[in-house]
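> forwarded from #structure-qc
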């Protein structure tokens, strides 16, 4: 049985084909990064229009690469929440139209939960129960994942998402957009200990995150250093700011995962979302889990950043009869599927 999946929640137009194993046969992503670069962030109206232009060619590409024709598709999966509502609506409308035209079931998948499911997909074996962390441009959420379809929110950011902080700090340092990979690159030659930036809630017994104070601390340090260094900061200072910022984010994310694993007694850690593409972060997670004898699951880059293959979570939903109605709507805000667990 073959599924066609669509993802259009932010600035990547994506389609994938997988079977009910689930095994990925095609995973096509058309990035809009170039379109949004000059604005220093994703412009919702621009993103929605670009999805309209790109979605059908991306679906065509995915079908071609998989060697499957539209007639062979027996279910449509779509991520309908959370995200930019105009962007989501493009994917959701296309998915509904395909489900009606092909007379096949429609399955709705939560984008945040799919980022964690990407770990299960990449591992090819059972990874749940696990602690799940999603660190992306829009979200920083920590879950107690009891099974592939039972995710309980432990905590989330109370202000900026981790990826958003990377993007904003990159903009403060004049590095460009999207900021994550550019900060990572600049940090390679920097000293992570030069600036002692704040690590919010690290010592608190709560699973929430906050990155806006950290971003402001970088802003002020950069402004003061620019003054001291005669108007602009040196390349070395820029690298040191990037490295010290990155280290602060890593310390908080790794620290909260450790606390959650210790508190729940779980032994598996699944990490997904764009920020999980960051190499020093992956290495720090690796060290921390190895030290405790825990198992770490992080998908390869192509399944960390936004993609439609992670919607293979739809196979689990389809198996348990969780189909979406044809009047399926798009929802911009993340709504956890289960009640929060007391910390
Ligand atoms: O999951 P994703 O592709 O899209 C959202 O759902 O938001 O995540 C994008 C975010 C951006 O904020 C980007 O700066 C960040 O992931 N990112 C990184 C890296 N690559 C992407 N952050 C840190 N280091 C990276 N190498
Ligand atoms: Zn995402």
């Amino acid at each position: 049985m073959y599924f066609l999946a669509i993802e259009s929640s932010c600035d990547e137009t994506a389609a994938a084909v997988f079977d009910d194993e689930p095994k990925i046969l095609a995973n096509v992503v058309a990035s809009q990064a170039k379109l949004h670069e000059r604005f220093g962030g994703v412009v919702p109206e621009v993103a929605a229009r670009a999805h309209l232009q790109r979605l059908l060619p991306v679906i065509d590409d995915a079908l071609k690469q998989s060697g499957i024709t539209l007639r062979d598709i027996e279910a449509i999966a779509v991520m309908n929440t959370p995200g930019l509502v105009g962007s989501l609506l493009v994917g959701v409308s296309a998915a509904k139209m395909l489900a009606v035209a092909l007379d096949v079931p429609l399955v709705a998948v939560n984008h945040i939960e799919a980022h964690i499911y990407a770990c299960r997909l990449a591992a090819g074996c059972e990874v749940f129960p696990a602690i799940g962390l999603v660190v992306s441009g829009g979200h920083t959420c920590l879950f107690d994942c009891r099974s592939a379809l039972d995710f309980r929110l432990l905590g989330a950011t109370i202000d900026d998402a981790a990826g958003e902080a990377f993007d904003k700090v990159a903009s403060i340092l004049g590095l460009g957009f999207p900021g994550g990979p550019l900060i990572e690159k600049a940090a390679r030659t920097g000293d992570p200990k030069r600036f002692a930036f704040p690590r919010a809630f690290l010592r608190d017994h709560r699973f929430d995150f906050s990155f806006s104070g950290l971003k402001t601390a970088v802003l002020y340090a950069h402004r003061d250093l620019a003054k001291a260094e005669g108007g602009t900061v040196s390349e070395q200072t820029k690298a040191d700011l990037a490295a010290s910022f990155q280290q602060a984010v890593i310390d908080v994310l790794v620290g909260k995962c450790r606390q959650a694993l210790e508190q729940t007694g779980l032994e598996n850690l699944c990490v997904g979302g764009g920020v999980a593409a960051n190499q020093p972060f992956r290495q720090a997670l690796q060290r921390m889990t190895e030290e405790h004898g825990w198992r770490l699951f992080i998908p390869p880059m192509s399944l960390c950043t936004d993609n439609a293959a992670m919607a293979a979570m739809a196979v689990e939903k389809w198996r348990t009869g969780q189909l979406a109605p044809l009047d399926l709507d798009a929802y911009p805000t993340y709504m956890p599927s289960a009640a929060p667990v007391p910390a």
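QC bot note: The CA atoms of residues 57 and 171 lie 32 Å apart. Residues 10, 136-138, 163-164, 166-167, 178-181, 184, 273-275, 277-278, 305-306 surround KG4 (ligand 1) (CB under 6 Å).
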